Amino acid sequence: MEKFLKSRFKTGPKIGENPFSLTYRGTFLSGEKQVIIKIYKRGTLNSALIKNMKAKVKLLSEIDHPGIAKLYDGDYGWQGFYYVREFVEGRTLGEAELFDADRIIGLVCEALSFPHRAGLVHGAIKPENVFILGDGQIKLVDFTIEGEVKEALPQKAVVVLSRSQFMSPEEILGEVARASSDIYSVGLLYYAMLTGITDFPPTPKFNGPLPPPPGLPKYAEDILDKALQPDPLLRFRSIEDLLQSLKQKTLVEKREMIDFPPIELENRPPLEAQEVVVVRQERKRSFFLLIVIGLSILAGLIYMLIMRSCANF
Fold it and tell me: Which among 36, 91, 113, 187 is most buried, taking Cβ atoms within 10 Å?
């Protein structure tokens, strides 16, 4: 059934659904120009979150870049909070045949550098959100705007279950996505294009960079190693550094090299004590990871049971 939003847009057929939102194809009322409309289900958002999302939609709507799908509007409507973005004609990276990985990842980096400079992150870099256009250019879609909708533990578990493959380690543990998180996801995208592998389970991400496939040039191995560090501080400092490394085929980091004199700490604990602290930290991190994965599986089962029950009515 058609609905109207803000007397500007008309919803068409539903094309997607997840535990938090519904996605429709739609059009502008003023013509036949197609759009994508995402509507968040009632009960998943509170008033404070809606206020924050409106502010983020405003910032994202100001981005005008050929590599980023235009965000037209976002507000609270008849079914819940919604946003409307440009309809992209093309194939997703997951649907397309393998392209020149360096060129495509370079275009992704160029597109991301624009919002990163404004303090905005994508938060959901994956093959389904990278479109390949007819002229070979790319367009990024569906920046994450929900933010704290993932902060409640059951919801967080569902998100990890559905999106963990291209998530950074810190996002899997429930931390807020940052520019360094996008860099990690771009690294996984690069790895997937070079190898054809798209299944990245959560646990190995905490053990260090993924082993490079045989036969890669040295610069590609170095870029993957740098981008896929579990510690965000050890990754590229910016998406521009990753881009320049691809172009120059060697690691590039725009940072001033300062030689600091060595500092001896008077009360520094013995080496054995330091090792104990590291082991405890690793155990704590593993414990939280097991909890998140377990809750993800449980949430998925509950969601399937609920959907099956609803189908029986």
Answer: 187
